[in-house]
Amino acid sequence: MISQEEIERAADFIRDNATKAAQARSDRLHLESFKKAKIAILFGRAGPGKTVAASEAWAYAHHEYIELLDAYKIAVKEDEEIRWLMEAATLKVRVGQTFQASLRAGTI
Fold it and tell me: Which pTM value belongs to this model?
């Protein structure tokens, strides 16, 4: 049984973490887009006389790109973590509301 207090705590969690969830998603999407731009920037800095394949390999192996991937990894973790916590809280609210309605209807 889920109490009204648990439902309210779950709803409060959703409300209180909405900004954090939005920021986590924003950071993740920004870094997803920036990865493409960073490769293009590094590709351009690879230097003249290199083949396309050599320039591409240099760009993907560059420490700045590796650092970006590390930041992206963190952003994905934070986004997924808050997303699943929000999902769990949402589910608790829905289940609790259904349970409470069933109690009022006398079906439980």
Answer: 0.83
